[in-house]
Design brief:
By secondary structure, the protein is α+β, with helices and mostly antiparallel strands. The protein has 3 helices and 12 strands; from the N terminus they run ααββββββαββββββ. β4 and β5 form a beta hairpin. The longest helix has 26 residues. Keywords: Signal.
Length: 230
């Protein structure tokens, strides 16, 4: 029989890949449609937007942490994501996700399985770059928060608070490097005390990418079971 901690841990792990992808895309794309509630915060986010739009592609190495002191849960994972336009490749927790602009390919080496699915724009749970563009378009209040000095870098935080009382997230803190206008980290605090943190360890832009960077090549997985959902 699973203990409460095991159940919470397993459920958390299942959600981590999806949450991580949401957060990673959010770091890059969500700023253009945030409604102005705090002029200083809006101005800073606009500067981030301008900087992000100037890049042809972006590569990020990150650390993802999940902590719940009450349940004694502490998990750390590393991953990376490459993004160009609405395409991406995410590597996280031993799983690779490729989105070529139309279909998502989820590659799980441990199970020797590839799941192929089309993106359903009507599915509220579907993760798409276009949805991340309007992630904070409504439902949040935000304003400037604390400033921290992290290894000589001035990090300005912006606090986002959900308007809905049903939202399980208490608040989100977005840390921005004031000099580079790049995202340093994103901290999400749940009402149940769980805190998830995504920290950018490496932020590279305009890297040389192969022509099939965002293309799934079936011949690379000859023994894998191909599960086509659509």
């Amino acid at each position: 029989m699973k203990t409460k901690i095991q159940e919470i841990t397993n459920n958390s792990i299942m959600k981590m890949t999806k949450k991580c992808l949401q957060m990673a895309i959010l770091l890059l794309l969500s700023f253009t449609s945030i409604q102005a509630q705090d002029k200083k915060a809006k101005d800073l986010l606009n500067q981030v937007t301008t900087k992000i739009k100037s890049y042809n592609n972006i590569s990020i190495d990150f650390k993802y942490s999940l902590n719940n002191a009450k349940e004694n849960i502490n998990q750390d994972s590393k991953g990376n994501v490459i993004m160009k336009g609405n395409q991406y490749v995410l590597n996280f927790m031993g799983v690779t996700k490729i989105f070529d602009g139309q279909k998502t390919y989820t590659i799980v080496p441990e199970d020797e399985e590839v799941t192929i699915s089309k993106v359903n724009e009507k599915d509220d749970n579907a993760i798409t770059p276009s949805k991340m563009l309007t992630f904070f378009n409504s439902g949040y209040k935000y304003n400037m928060d604390i400033v921290q000095n992290v290894k000589g870098r001035k990090i300005q935080y912006i606090k986002l608070v959900p308007n809905s009382g049903k939202d399980q997230r208490k608040e989100i803190l977005l840390g921005i490097d004031v000099q580079t206008k790049h995202i340093y980290n994103l901290i999400e605090t749940g009402k149940n005390g769980t805190k998830t943190t995504l920290t950018v360890n490496s932020f590279k832009t305009n890297q040389p990418l192969s022509k099939n960077q965002f293309t799934f090549v079936a011949s690379k997985y000859p023994k894998y079971y191909i599960n086509k959902l659509d």
